[in-house]
Write a structure and sequence with these properties.
Elements: H1 12-42, E1 85-87, E2 121-123, H2 140-147, E3 176-181, E4 186-188, H3 196-200, E5 205-213, E6 219-226, H4 229-240, E7 243-244, E8 247-249, E9 252-264
């Protein structure tokens, strides 16, 4: 049985021929596919005009007219109400005391409307009652003046005198003023002690201390602004013990800011 087996060996020459045939076949298929695709593309009738593509005339759109801005609304002024009766003739009623006797005595019935009690009145062309109940009632003197008036309406309020002018405001006084160096205006100006540390290093010179003097003449605050650092603390302590006369401005005491100068030798 083993002697019937056939040993298969690869033939290089046959394999080479087979690979070449396969490569040529693939090249032919690819070339045919590309040729057919190019032919189908270039065979189309791509041209402008005719039935394939119709061009229409392009017309710009007609611009719409701009809308006019709306007119501003005018606020209607409320009608002025006449808070008084209107009479064509000023005739007193039976409850009123006429200011003067009538010029002509007649027994004919009056067609005009008489004045109402305690009601302001103006003279007009049509008789009407427009009295406002919220309006204060006039006095008898006002009604008497209305009977003697011609065209001017009656005023409910009598003539008022102009109010007196307000008194002039008092002159403003500043709370604090500046005086510069205030050594000469001091009532009591203690001398500062010479610190031992400053004496050891022979520290000398002047020290300027900025102070604020209260209204009663005492020193509120003291701060050295110049001088040797070892001398400043002693100068500030002496400045706080200083006393000054109160400073008056327009008769009122004010605070004063100034400078005290101490010389250390």
């Amino acid at each position: 049985m083993l002697d019937q087996l056939v040993e298969s060996k690869s033939d290089p020459q046959a394999n080479k021929w087979r690979n070449g045939l396969l490569l040529v076949t693939l090249i032919l298929v690819f070339t045919s596919f590309v040729s057919g695709l190019g032919y189908s593309l270039f065979n189309q009738n791509l041209f402008v005009g005719g039935d394939g593509l119709e061009l229409s005339t392009l017309v710009a759109p007609v611009p719409l007219p701009e809308e006019a801005p709306p007119e501003p609304e005018v606020e209607k002024q409320p009608e002025k109400q006449i808070n008084a009766d209107v009479r064509k003739e000023l005739i007193a009623n039976l409850n009123m005391t006429p200011p003067k006797p009538p010029d002509k005595i007649s027994t004919d019935q009056l067609k005009a409307r008489v004045l109402r009690d305690n009601t302001p009145v103006v003279k007009g062309d049509v008789d009407s009652d427009r009295f406002d109940s919220n309006r204060p009632k006039p006095s008898q003197a006002d009604l008497s003046n209305a009977l003697g008036q011609t065209d001017a309406p009656v005023s409910d309020d009598g003539p008022k005198s102009a109010p007196p002018p307000p008194p002039p405001p008092p002159p403003s006084v500043p709370k604090r003023i500046s005086k510069g160096v205030v050594n000469g205006s001091a009532v009591s100006l203690p001398k500062p002690a010479y610190p031992a540390a400053a004496r050891a290093v022979n520290a000398k010179g002047s020290v300027n201390v900025a102070i604020v003097i209260s209204k009663d003449g005492s020193v509120i605050s003291a701060s050295a602004v110049s001088g040797h650092p070892l001398l400043r603390a002693a100068a500030e302590g002496a400045a706080r013990r200083a006393r000054f006369r109160p400073t008056l401005l327009s008769g009122q005491p004010v605070e004063v800011s100034g400078v005290i100068v101490y010389n250390f030798q």
